[in-house]
Specification:
This protein is mostly helical and 275 residues long. It has 12 helices and no strands. Helix 4 packs across helix 6, helix 5 crosses helix 6 and helix 5 packs across helix 8.
Length: 275
């Protein structure tokens, strides 16, 4: 049985167990009441029992609800952690542009947001640029990072804060600096990515999704979000010194060249749209 199937079955099984325990307890209350009345119970008796069978008035039911809720919370945390641990690197990378995505179940807004359909296309493009072996190495680093934070913080760990953790930032920067070599010719890479995304994105399910496209502007929205923090660090005097402690001069020069090329290409795209 796969981990996915195990997690999908555990929730309903726990809920079934809770319902069974509540019904068993209620039947016991009926039997107790019936024993006091020589086995006779009428509709009014059952209604009165049901109305009094609440966590506020029944101590055993209160304890059952409390313990079951704690069990449900634990199961949810374990399932969420398991899911996070499967694709931690992807989640850290997507966090760089998650603010550009619509809420789950909502349609993208042209010229304002990206579509959630780009996520699998983005991951596939990233895997192609990084290569399978190095990508797996980065994935393991991300997984070890999450395990380490969880071991220290336990249930108090804030999942939303993970992308801003210094270790996570270093990991994401390592990848962004590595793939910057592929964006030196920004126009060529833009054409490749817009074509690749359109071929790779899952099929649209709504009219709004079908009307949305990953075009030149969307490419630059994505790239600007991915590199925004790293660019700000690079062009800050203290930030650059910090980067120089980890990356060689050639890598930072390449990054600087790539950012300049992206900016120039973005101006070209905007000029063509406004002409």
């Amino acid at each position: 049985m796969t981990q996915d199937k195990t997690n999908s079955e555990e929730g309903p099984a726990r809920l079934h167990g809770f319902v069974h325990d509540v019904l068993t307890l209620f039947v016991a209350r009926i039997n107790d009441h019936a024993a006091k009345g020589a086995g006779k119970l009428g509709p009014r008796d059952l209604t009165a029992l049901a109305q009094s069978f609440t966590p506020e008035t029944d101590h055993d039911l209160h304890d059952l609800c409390t313990s079951s809720w704690a069990s449900f919370q634990h199961a949810f945390e374990e399932a969420f952690y398991s899911q996070m641990r499967k694709f931690p690197l992807e989640r850290l990378m997507v966090a760089k542009f998650v603010h550009l995505l619509p809420e789950r179940g909502e349609d993208p807004v042209p010229n304002r947001t990206l579509s959630r359909r780009i996520i699998p296309a983005f991951i596939q493009a990233l895997q192609q640029m990084v290569g399978p072996e190095l990508f797996e190495e980065y994935e393991n680093r991300a997984r070890n990072f999450i395990d380490s934070v969880r071991a220290k913080q336990g249930a108090a760990m804030d999942w939303e804060q993970l992308p801003s953790h210094p270790v996570a930032e270093i990991l994401v920067n390592d990848i962004l600096i590595y793939i910057s070599r592929y964006f030196i010719d920004a126009q060529k890479r833009r054409h490749w990515m817009t074509s690749f995304f359109e071929r790779t994105m899952p099929a649209a399910k709504t009219d709004a999704e079908r009307a949305w496209q990953f075009g030149d502007l969307e490419f630059h929205k994505l790239m600007s979000s991915l590199y925004k923090t790293l660019a700000e660090t690079l062009f800050d005097e203290d930030g650059r010194r910090h980067l120089e402690q980890r990356y060689d001069a050639a890598s930072l020069s390449q990054l600087e060249q790539m950012l300049a090329g992206l900016a120039q290409d973005q101006r070209r795209v905007l000029a063509e749209l406004n002409s």
